[in-house]
Amino acid sequence: MEPKAIKRKLSENLKxxxxxxxxxxxxxxxxxxxxxxxxxxxxxxxxxxxLLVDMGVQDIGESRVQELTKRAAMVDEWLSRRARDLAAxxxxxxxxxxxxxxxxxxxxxxxxxxxxxxxxxxLRLAEEINNQAGKLDRSIPVMIEVNAGGExxxxxxxxxxxxxxxxxxCSLPHLEITGLMAMAPFTDDESVIRETFxxxxxxxxxxxxxxxxxxxxxxxxxxxxxxxxxxxxxxATHVRVGTxxxxxxDLAPQAAPAHEGMx
Length: 263
Ligand SMILES: *Cc1c(COP(=O)(O)O)cnc(C)c1O
Known about the structure:
Strand content: 15-25%
Distance between the termini: 24 Å
Largest sheet: 9 strands, parallel
Shape: globular
Bound molecules: pyridoxal-5'-phosphate
Radius of gyration: 18 Å
């Protein structure tokens, strides 16, 4: 695919996603600024990430630590190289969101590069993030991944265990608990997806109502390409969108090879 054609299609897709976000916000009377679009780039080449950054996308999601750190470093280098070329216009560095399942032994590599982790799902993982963030003298914003979709989902804290989990990790000094993340089950059944998101929203309200977390607890990461409108209608502040931004773009030949964790 010609670079120009890729750019045109990407820009079209972005506009379409923006439109869908705006309409979902309007339906429930929320301001558009309430919702952050996290562009999920796990299968695409660096060129496409650069184009997205150029189009003003500031939040990028990756599901694997190795990809996130490698790409964040390359985008950083590209931006600082370009900052010297004033004509190109400076762009802010994107914020890198870790959205996939995270293993403890990868935390150390991740922490210097990530803006926020959406997928904290165990006490030991939370402790390791706290530990590595402490070494860098910073605090990492994290969301707790809730297993609200039932049997189908492998990861996440059980709904019934989530408030206790918040209590367990809220005293870790280098973690900032910012909210909850969940994935809907793989289904076309709108009511099942909505029920899942509503369950997470209720849990979120409960945690706020009982003052279990600090005032930083104000985010909900709900919704992907096929269901982010339902997420927004349930109160999502972050939607994680990959496929809808990349549809119609032939990712060959520079595309990253298929790998597990891609689904
Ligand atoms: C891949 C992925 C997404 C994006 O999914 P799309 O359906 O491509 O929009 C969102 N969240 C997580 C955790 C993912 O792994």
